[in-house]
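so the lab meeting is tmrw and i was supposed to have these ready like two days ago... anyway. pasting both below. for each one the top line is the aa sequence and the line under it is the structure tokens. i havent really looked at them closely yet so no promises
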Amino acid sequence: MLARQTRRSISLHQATSLGAIGRPSRCLPRPLLTSTLGRRCVVTQFQTRQRRGSESSHAPSNGRGLATAVDDFKFANSPYSPLPGSGMSPFQGAHYLRPFDPTTPLVIPEPGPPRTATKINSSGIPGDAEDMLPVFDACVRVGKLDRAALVLKRLNTIGIVPGEERIVLHNQYLRASLNQMRTNPDRKQAEQLHKWYELEIRNEDIPQTAETIACMLKASLLSERGSRLERLINRYMSMAPGEAGLRVLSMADILSDSDLAVITEICPTYNFAPEAEDAEVTLVSDEEQLDIMEGLGDTAEASETPAYPDIRVTPQRGEGLETLKRSLGLINQLENVDISKLSVEEQREFQIRLERDSIDAAIAKWRTDRNKLQKIGVQTVLSANADDGSLSQNLPNWLKEMEARLKVEIAKIEESENKASKSEEDLERCLYGPFIRQADPTRLAAVTILSVLNHGAMMGIDKGVILGRLINDVSRVAQEDIRLQFDDKRKKEQRRLRKVNFIGKEADIKDSPDGVIIDATGPEVEEKEEGYQKSWSLTIKAQVGSILLKSLIETAKVKVVKKHPITGDRISQYQPAFSHMMQPRKGKKIGVLVLNADLVERMKREPVGDFIAKHLPMVAEPRPWTRMYEGGFLESKAPFVRVKPGDVEQKLYTKAAIQRGDMEQVFKGLDVLGKTSWRINNNVLDVMVEAWNTGEEIANMPPLSPDLDLPPEPDSSEDPLIRRRWIRAVKAVENERSALHSQRCFMNLQLEIARAFRNQTVYFPHNVDYRGRAYPIPTYLNHMGADHTRSILKFAKGKELGVNGLRWLKIHLANVYGYDKASFDEREAFSTDNLASIVESATNPLNGSRWWLKAEDPWQCLAACFELKAAHELADPSKFVSQLPVHQDGTCNGLQHYAALGGDTWGAQQVNLMPGSRPADVYSAVANLVKESIAKDAAAKNRIAEIVTGKITRKVVKQTVMTNVYGVTFSGAKSQVCKQIDALYPNLYKECGIPHLLISTYIAKHIFTALATMFRGAHDIQYWLGEIGGRVCRALTPAQLQQISDSFEEEKTSTGSKAKKTKNPKLAKSGIEELTQQFRSTVVWTTPLRMPVAQPYRKTTMKEVRTCLQSVAYSVSDQTDPVNRRKQLQGFPPNFIHSLDASHMLLSALQCNELGLDFAAVHDSFWTHAADVDVMNGVLREAFIRIHEEDVVGRLAAEFEARYKGSIYLAHIDADTPVAQKIKELRKSSKLSPKEELMLEHKRNTLRLSGNPWDLEAAKQIVTPASVYEEMAACEEDVIIREETEGMGIGCIPENEARLDEAAIAKEARQMAENTEDELATRESTEFTDDLLEGMKHSRFEQEVIEPKKQRVVVKKGKAPLAIWLPLTFPALPKKGDFDVAQLRESQYFFS
């Protein structure tokens, strides 16, 4: 136990802060109730079921996966050997990479044919499962069992949910019915329940669980007596003989002790063991609670410290900042208490409070009971002397009026549900009614008001907010709030188990014909139960969001005061605060919510609230990941994998992988990242706040009042086109001013968060995207932010530097300063030589020489200056305990993976995979190659080459080189280079007369040529991956082929004869198009850490939902939708590389954690303490080698062969080739339709793959275009895939953009020159207008140069390609070079 004084202090601060929220102690999780926090708590401990994936599952594994070369690696010979006496063991082998067989990949069930949409029926029950399941859940929760029964009946009728899953729904219904019967015993209702059981469960042959039998036993006990009760109990217990009966009787949350006594008396083969349920009760006395509260004043007084300076507020259109301050009230009240010093349970309680603070605080501030709020410590924005009509006075009125309006709406919902004949409005109410009933109207009103005001402030309150987005935002926050409320209730009613013994003889157990119970105590069933607390569908979100917004629009008023234009009297009027209207946006009319002009002005002066508490850092260690939605925050739900709402496939693969145990390593890796503890670097924060409050532009801080001059307005007599150009210039200035203002507002939020957490230890829970790349979930402040956010974060734990650590700290400073291409010794010397400037920067950062501001990352440089200064203040700097993260960055990490995959020796040298005395710089290498080629062009008198000579720098080419490996197009590369030319040489156009875009096109061409020369192996792999993606996306799976075959046979049967031959070429074409609409195979692969990756690119469809406000259109996609073929094949190579670098990062994190290192990462930048950099560097190399010493590409090919076995894809070959001619002759004689041809090939392929000699012989007798193709050993290039992969490879330039026409450039230059200001006055009006309009066309070069080339390409193609169905095979693996990845061990600059 803590000492009494310490305990009193902790309890004081906790009581002060927690009391302000008004959350009753009964809402706390069970582990927290045992802590002595100033509350009277009662805790009863019961035997609970073990859940799969508990925290214990995250213990490090002792097993080994594969024997690797790591075992033979001696750390003593490595330049990254552990420091003497560091206590860290060397790298023990990457046993986290468990072997998996690529020939048996994880697969999910193939979706059936698309279901036709089913409309809502006359009772108001929807027809789609995604709507019915949430509606059922909501009806059960609010006690509308009659409507829940209608949903279940329709589910039984439609049959879209399997029986094993339907029983979970029936169990929910039975439990809810029992709860009603306990309150109001009704024999009639019990009879109805027995009838329900017989008709809807037994007659439907739905498998039952122990919960089902327990519920029916309870129903019998509540309603029956005497012999009928005995018969019912005997009957139900006969359905669960032996051990199954134990599971039934162990459900203490359904059957009470007295119930069990009755059952065991009737069925004496079971014996109740009451000692197992003895409760341990922990009480906190009222006296102790009073004693704690009485000590408030003394402890608060003792802990007073000087107030931290406020951060100068940036005037904002919206109340995001003010709400943030209110949401941070809990932290601000404890600014002088270090929460990390409390127990784990108390830290978790603080975190739960922080996650729940926003809505409670907002409602409390708007309540009229101000005395009570002040008594419990809640600060309110309402003040007695507030101006009449201020926004702070309007909010409580809106809350009250909307609350009343929602109560009226709930009454109307009741009426609509009871109507026999329902109108359209009644049916809508039946759909959204159960969800409105679930929540407290006050909270729903608060959710709506805050969401609307915040969303308006974020999206631009003076322009109107697009209604579709707003509806989605309001419903999302409402759903989250409802879920949190019911989570509290669910925790209180957590299921309990009791100990029951079976005392009968096993031989006496007879298999009863009624024994239908299934084992339903495993984790799979628990996941199903939780799964039915479904996310709201798009339809439900639209309906709920619309009614909430409609209620706000109808009730929210603002008092507008104006001066009469004639009399001068002040007159007032109450006007709607919000209006719904249609506005033209991008050529379409869309619904928008427009704020009252007077309200807009008030919001500019007086900020409003925001739900951002769940986006803040955590003050307790994140919950370990165990399932799709279990991990990270303690109460707020976040998905393990970030996917778009319509991306069902990735969710299915992820859940299947979790159930199979394949995600354990990814879970553990994210847990390692999440449990890294951080603190605010107060030295940097102090300087940042001081700089911020000056309002000046310092480092990346935008100025408070930017000095942007507007161009002079032309005279009204000037040509209208000149005025249009002036208007565009004014808009450009205003857009820049707005961008700077938005940037400053966001930085304002970040500084407020840092200020609030400056004395706390914080954590950043992580999740992954669909490729496995990890991201922090808190969005506002994290280590993945810009320079200023990285600089104000440091590790919570410090480590003594040591000699090597001091060296790495100096190297780190040189890196962030921008001196990162020199050798390590030179970088260390740079910091040593500039030590005086470093100390001066840390001593007087803003009023001195400001040396640190010259750095590439100035704020991070300043943080390193503080650290080095503090170290050198000691007699021995190596003894300094450092908390600063030191970064090790990869050299264009994507190219590193490509070089290793392709065995590309030259490429490996350029990205530091091979040893070298100095770091290789791929960007400088590309820049040098570009310079050489441009010099040759300049010698040949190329005008553009002469202009850009001497202007090609590393910075010009860096972004294009970095992103080319991740799929940037040539068009994107031109824009990237143009952006750099604009920044580095803004006056170049005035000097040479050639537009920057043309110059950038020329430079980008040379960059791509250089890349193709340097990374030949990577180029080949990219094309191989693209070819695979192109074939997969044009394939039909065996399941699809069987569906097509079945429907084809039904067509033939229905017509009574063989399907008609398609002679008309147009009909044949339409047959192909019908089949191509069924191309839905997405590219799926498995990462080295066994995470399945499914690319999400599909063709979306629009779904229109009619609501009480307007029709809302959403883009939706499903497994049955056709894939977006171009995106699939072009996205596969970069996404595959992303999945490799993500695996490398997580594998490194796991091993660093095992060695006791603090570890953080920003994709390919890895961070640890300076003292541990040597150890981490060894881990990074070994993890990379461990991944690439296996045949990654070969394993991928084997996985694809197994995953898509039996599929058939549509190839397109040149129509003039010999094999195409022979196929045409075959088709003339066979006269088969495209579908018949496909079915014949499916039959041949099935026989061929069976392995049966008879089937193989039969397959040889079938002649199809594919058999002709195989017989001629053809290897024709797929024309369509070639077109779609054009420009995709590293350094590949599309044919239509490969040339620069000198005449076109000269013509463009003349055109631009003719539009100069000097000539405007002397030219004829008509000629001026024509030329200016042409000059305004930024794409003139494309119109005159590129488009004609496209036309030439079309003419050159001639005939359309020939489409044929071929068995899905994959091209041969690209030849690998001779680079040995093991050489990486000796490369000291791999990560540096």
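ok protien two:
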Amino acid sequence: MLLVVVLLALGVVAPGTMPRASAAGAQSCGFATAGTGTYARTLCWFDLSGYSAAEATSPAGQRLMFALPGGYRLAATLTVSGGPVAPSALPTYSAAYLGNSGHYTGVPGRPALYQTANGTTTVATLTDIVATDASGAVVKGYGLVGADVESTDPGESIEWTSSSPIESLTADSSGPGIGNACGGGYPGVGTRTVRCVGRTTANKSGTPILSSEDPTSFTQRMVGGGRQAVGFGVLVSSLQMSKKVVRGFPGDSFAVSVASSNGAVLGSADTRGGTSATTGEITVLAGARGSEYTLREAATSGLESNYDRSWTCTRNGAADGKLPTGDAGGSAQVHVDVGDFVSCTITNTAKAATLQLVKHAAPPVDVNGNGITDAGDTIEYTFTVTNAGALALHDITVTDPKAGPATCPRPTLAPGESQTCAAQVPYVITKADEANGAAVNTATASGLPPGVTTEVTSNPSSTRTPTETPKPALTLTKSASPDDPEAYTAGRRITYSFLVTNTGNVPLNEIGVDETAFSGSGVLSTPVCPVTTLAPGAGTTCTATYVLTQDDVDSGLLHNTATAHGKQPGSPDPTTSNPSSVSIPTPAHPAITLVKTADPTTVERAGQSVTYRFTVTNTGDVTLRGVGVDETRFTGSGPAPEISCPDVVLAPGASQTCLGVHRVTQADIDAGSIENTAVAHGTAPRATEPTTAAPSSAKVTADRSAALALAKSAYPGTVAAAGEPVRYSFLVTNTGNVTLTDVTVTEGAFSGSGTLSAISCPAGAAVVPVLAPGQAVTCAADYTVTQADLDAGRITNSATAAGTPPGGLPTATTPPATAVVTASGGAALTLVKSVEPATVDGAGHTVTYRFAVTNNGNRTLTSVAVRESAFTGTGAGPAIACPSDTLAPGQAVTCTATYTLTQADADAGSVTNTAEATGNPPQGDPVTSGPSQATVTVLRRPGLSLVKSADPTDDGHFDAGQTVTYSFVVTNTGNQTLTTVTVRETAFSGTGGLSPLSCPGGGSTVGVLAPDEQAVCTATYVLTQSDVDSGHVTNTAVATGTPPAGTEPPTSDPSTAVVPTPPDAALTLAKTATPGTVSAAGQQITYAFVVTNTGNVTLNPVTVRETRFTGSGAGPVPVCPGGALAPGRQVTCTATYRVTQSDVDAGSIGNTAVASGTPPDGGSPADSKPATATVHATAVGALAITKAAGPVDVNRDGSIGAGDRISWTITVTNTGTATVGEIKVDDPSAGPVTCPGTVLAPGQAMTCTVLPHTVTAADVTAGRVRNVATATGTGPDGKPVPGGEATASVPVVPVLPPGPRPGPATGPGEPPHRLPDTGVDVGRQLALAALLLTAGLALCLAGRRRRA
């Protein structure tokens, strides 16, 4: 057993003697490992290594001093007597609770005093306990605590005795914490003596921990069968304050501190720019009623306004709603009780300081006008800066290494605010940008949060402006007309054509043609060009003329070569074309080419237009006429495109582009491509057949995409009750560009507990046969909500859709689409509490509380319970029992509890009880009903009676000088406790003076008188001669008392005593029996006999005798307390009786008694009137019958068949609590039944027999012999008692025909027939029994006493 000293320091300096100095100096104390017990962090165990047996067992004891955390010290004198002890570590042994299995483990040193011998009794007492603080001042308000360090087993007990009341603490987080430690009882909690009695030797699942506040002495008495242990410790309180910083700004620091109620700082810590700090655990003595402490945090560097603050606190490792939480401010007060460990952490999370930057590039300025973006051109940049955080930012700047400085409208941005900044000068594109193909530029923005010196930088944002390098180029194609031999005559004018084309990427100016070689004898005119500027891709035809001379004709050939030239803007260097030559006359060489293209070459939807371009070029040397284009192959689904050409005449070298347009159809998309082949034709002069170009083809590819979209919805989206319908809609859309077939919707995950209907699509079909691109259909399914769905809180449902695309493409499948139906409402409970009766007339009445708990939500609730939240009764709170702990919505249950009112309740006038119901919904936190209150009112009836008597009262003692003793028996006849009960004389005829009144306790009043309690006050008087001369002395008095506040004080009726008075001996008797009803033999009845002396003489002895008793057992023997019974006094005698079966059968037990008392003169005893108590028996009779078959293989053929015999055994058992007689067993098919008797006591059984049955051919035909038996009887009350019926059945088989029979085999692989099993396999049972006996013997031999 552990004796723990718990210091509940009040913090008040008290006068007193300082502790005597310790010769050995202060000892240490240590804590258990954190988390191993409720007080692991606050219970500091004394290291008793310095224990001295010589000192502790001496009369003076051993003076010990211990240094406690926080600078406190505690001194006490330990006195040990009886069995010897020695210091020991924890655990003391393997089956102890403390120190084992994670219960207060890791305690340093040797905190236990362990008995060193078995079967001894040790008494350990602490006295002269003094605690001081760090300044040496004595502190009061501590408490001593006792707890079991070892274990209390059968035959062992622990008893604590204290000068102050002892209360039970918990050893762990739930319940009283004693587990199986005190299996034999744990009485006395709340008194000055508590006892723990052992019962089991199993490993302990708890230990008692007891506390007594500020006692003058505290003793623990250990009675050990084996060995026991004692230890000491002190229970303190502690606080801890911690700081966490999340995403803190550089340089910011925070301090935390803990201060006492007077402002003294007990501990502090600073993060010093880091992310955490803690004060560590600070030990305090919180005082008997606890103390207030202030926890505070503050920024020592930086601004607190830049952070979000959150408090998180625990008390003894668990959340406590009374502690700060959330943003509780920079400081908070916490209340700390004895043994508390309060830990708080303030987390400061930096508010977001975030900048976002988006950079924009304006279209470039073509400075050199060459039509492209190249070196020298300029770009203007702007920057959109947004404060995306929660803090204002100042000193906003934009940094762009290429663009240079930027100007912003405002230096400060509030949270969520944006502004546009601009580069101060345009950016000039460089040759490097031109070479790279683009001008790429990246910028960032920055700003400063309040009170912070480290900049916040935005994301980098870039722009990319494509650039180009100038590439000037020209081509020249020269031709002459006419050029045929027939036209080659003198005087013929020849026209030269020069087709000049700009094939570069920049415009060219000053276009012209230069003749570089000419063989004619005449003069060629200067070439004339219609335009002198050509954009990229543009062309112009320049011309010149020449008149043939005879010399030219005579030479037979005229040759001419030329080049074209031009200049790009800004460049001094000319661009020159290729040389082009022509000679005439020339033989006709007609030729034509065709290049066919399609734009676009890829299509993705029906309705798009494809433009076909047919570039027809006269590649011959003669002019072609009738030029056109013919389609020769077209795979599109519609008609081939109609082709139009701008001209039907094409000079040598000339080209033209013909056009055709085709509108794409869905069939084209589904096919995947459109192929087209064409030829060009033209007719040369004097030719009879056209010249045809080689075929040219173009292919347009369909960018096919097979895709589906599924949108799932549910209506309604919120449900509130089981049975509500929900319709799920599935909107399926073909989001691809090809037609889909056989489109289906498939359910995936479904959390509903019911059955979802099949999915129905348009026209009731399960499949959508065809779904064109862009087309949508809606399918549907229905569902009915269940209670389980409501309990789950939601119904989730996912589905996918799939469709088959044209050949070659994979199946189109959607991702799952989900619809969620939310359960509205929620969990709710109501509680209506009532009490019956609501009004009682005093203590001892038992009231019944009823708690009507109703689930008025729409969620099933489990673990439904009722808990008391306030109870003004002074007795143990009522234990509430509920018939069910699960409630469906709308369901109700009535829980009940009983309570017996105490006298304190009666004195208070009422007992008020408030309760609330709780339950656990399927999800979320438990729900709690509103409080419901019920009040029991006690009808206050204060009352007193007074019986006054005198001794002696006879004539023989009525002489002068005789002392007469007056007795005043005051009885509290009401139902309220009375205080300051006094007796007041109202009339006295004596001529002398009465002595002062003497009442119990030595005063003239009775301090406290409970209902039915009596007190006897006395006074004396010495008779005078005048009294004798008058012939008598008369004395009358009344009694008064003070009831609880609010009630009129009662006054008794007057009571008079006259001396002398003839003696009158008289008694009354009131008899009761508990319980008033019994149901089985063996139950015990306790009889109480209240005997009251209603005469005027003292009776001695007083006895009670039974005059009538109907029980069948030995009559109860009343036992009365010894001593005389004065007039007006009463005494309670008791007797017990154990019920017999005959009593139960009789239905009741009657009992009548008479009280007797002998008067002082020794005359005949006075008898009371008879008093009777009757106990009723409520027993019932019940019968059970079983029947067993015993087949006998008479012919030994291995089976039960015709001619074999079956014996029957019938067992009848009385399963009730009353004797059953006239028992009869009927077995119509088996014949008469013989039983050994006709009466069975409760629990008794008898076996009846019947003649054996010989198996007949009819039985074989039926396949079995079946037998039914019934039993009946009569109860003690004469009513019939049914016994039910019992059936036995035996299978039978036909006889096999004669012949060799290797055995009565059945089917393949089956065993042969054998006798039916109607009992058990005795061999197996005996083997099993032997095995179990052997194992049990081994366990017994292996068992040992748990400790030496």
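from a quick look at the 2nd one: The chain has a mean pLDDT of 87. The first strand starts at residue 2 and ends at 6. will dig more after coffe
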